[in-house]
Amino acid sequence: MMKRNQPLLRNLLKTRLLKFGILCLWSCMVNHQLYAQNIEIITFKNLQQLLFNQSDTTYVVNFMSSWCKPCIKELPEFIKLTNDTKHKKIKVLFVSLDVKKNMNESIKPIATKFKINPIYLLDESNPNNWIDKLDKNWNGEIPTTFIIKKGKIKNKIIGGISYHQLIKILK
Predict the structure, then answer these.
(1) 113 in the same domain as 160
(2) Which residue blocks in the chain are alpha helix, DSSP H?
(3) What is the DSSP letter of 57?
């Protein structure tokens, strides 16, 4: 009786292993794509509405780009800040100044590598139309980080910044 059922058991085992393998592969792909595809394209007007509200949340807004080496170098600092402040009223936002048509080659790999969820891709073709609306004293250089609370810019940091500097500013 046992010998007759061995091919059936082998096929059942192969089928279950195949299903398990497919499930694992699918899970890895979905997890990878969650980060790779979570680029939110946003206009400056929408970004203003997000940041300049009367909420008691403090927004740490990092303007960056995939081609900016100092921007990429400081990303782990912001990720650590995100993880350490997730239960506080502090929200870290990444705003990419990359070109929308190149986002698959530019910013998506960075979102995946650093598990950033989401990165806002600023969809504005002319920086002169929005930079002065954000801060008249900023000329658009990156990396730049703004600390915004209750609709007001509390601090602006031009250039790279460390986790400890961020914590000190946020106290």
Answers:
(1) yes
(2) 2-36, 44-51, 69-84, 107-114, 131-134, 163-170
(3) P
